Known about the structure:
alpha/beta, 12 helices, binds orotidine-5'-monophosphate, orotidine-5'-phosphate decarboxylase activity, OMPdecase_type-2
Amino acid sequence: MTGTTEPFGARLRRAMDERGPLCVGIDPHASLLAEWGLDDDVAGLERFSRTVVEAVADRVAVLKPQSAFFERFGSRGVAVLEKSVEEARSAGALVVMDAKRGDIGSTMAAYAESFLRKDAPLFSDALTVSPYLGYGSLKPAVDMARENGAGLFVLALTSNPEGGEVQHAVRADGRTVGATMLAHLAAENAREEPLGSFGAVVGATLGDLSSYDLGINGPLLAPGIGAQGATPADLPRVFGAVVRNVVPNVSRGVLRHGPDVLALRTAADRFADEVRTAVAAG
Ligand SMILES: O=C(O)c1cc(=O)[nH]c(=O)n1[C@@H]1O[C@H](COP(=O)(O)O)[C@@H](O)[C@H]1O
């Protein structure tokens, strides 16, 4: 931790307690731009992204821009991404940059500088990362996050059906690969209060996860609600005792209500209420 920089986990816990834990994704699919009556170009991208930020950044805990949809437009798309991150953060939302980076250690350090160094143009409160070059390859990102009060979300048990062939694979020590990633995160977050800064991505679509120890003392980003078929009511069944640490993500389930700001806001509020009710019951 540098100076008085408050760790991501503490900032996230407070935001979740104050605003509820919902994360809304900024996923400007070409099909959504068309549904919103926008052109599939940089101006359309900018209008889409600004509208989502205007609609929900003052009320949800987290916004998660999907970097690929911005990178599609090259440097001008990335400029829109920079602006969206800045606007979302100034409206009080935390930003999780969904860029799913993962590389050998020496180049991972450059990715970490791009997203997790406080003075970087794309600095975000947290970054999604892939540990499938080995968890240890993420060390430069872990270190950079710690120094800058940022966090990581490590892909552990993803929402897509193809993930199982890697994540459920059993290692020589009898543990699955996914369980091993969770154990690394638990070690990273040990003794952190009120919540560690190193989260796992665990799909809300996965059903019974009782064979996994999700008690990593860190946040669990749970995509899959809405378009992928999971609902807020599934959360207690999937996450059990750690449901209070879940940050459920909805992207298309909210975004399909645009371009009307009020309709987007109402959709996000409805998911937020359903999540609150499910977590309270869990
Ligand atoms: O890391 C992620 O955010 C992620 C991990 C995962 O396992 N599954 C998953 O869907 N996501 C992302 O979460 C978002 C889900 O979008 P919707 O299906 O439209 O709600 C997309 O941006 C995905 O890239």
